[in-house]
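Exercise 7 asks you to align residues with tokens for two separate proteins.
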Amino acid sequence: QVQLVESGGGLVQAGGSLRLSCAASGRTFSRNWMGWFRQAPGKEREFVATIPGSGGNTFYADSVKGRFTISRDNALNTVYLQMNSLKPEDTAVYYCAAQLASSNVKSSNYNYWGQGTQVTVSS
């Protein structure tokens, strides 16, 4: 059974940092794109960042570019999201996802999803 388990969320003041982790189990994703998405209350889920199996050619939403960094450790089957200079508008539930097809990697076209971790940024 494939599972993606996020951790590292919490409450932080504006300008602070958090590092999210997503540990995969049940299969290896070393050749697959893995991404982060988020959903704020009353809003649709949106793309945040994604990274290919090789770790190169990452993509980011414009709203987080320059502040967030996605990375991965294939030996640990884990993907990370380092979030710096956090803003109140970054408050959301953050979801990790894995895609098998390597297409439309900025869309929600992912096959496996975690349960989410809450990030709250206070002003």
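Second protein for Exercise 7:
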Amino acid sequence: VQLQASGGGLVQAGGSLRLSCSVSGITFSVQAMSWHRQAPGKQREGVSSVYRNWRTYYADVVRGRFAISRDSAENTVYLHMNGLKPEDTAVYYCAAARQDPRLVWATYEYDYWGQGTLVTVSS
């Protein structure tokens, strides 16, 4: 399974971006999809996840501003980011799990990772 993330870029505070993560390979083995991010000097943190039953999870710091969606026909997961803040600046990674994680933000729960896409929010 390979994951390809795209859609990052430079945006002003208050702006919007949509990240995409396309999944190729043995896609039927993928159950949960997730977005994580890592800011300079900080640990990787979970942002949003969608499980096979379409249940979604959001980190408190993005809830109400970000939305995750999944297009099973296209094997793609999206992260719609609105109301971006400078503190959202990070490299965003998509991840996939063969089973729905018991701990939604634990990186070890995810089996596959994309290469990351940089989001920079200017003030």
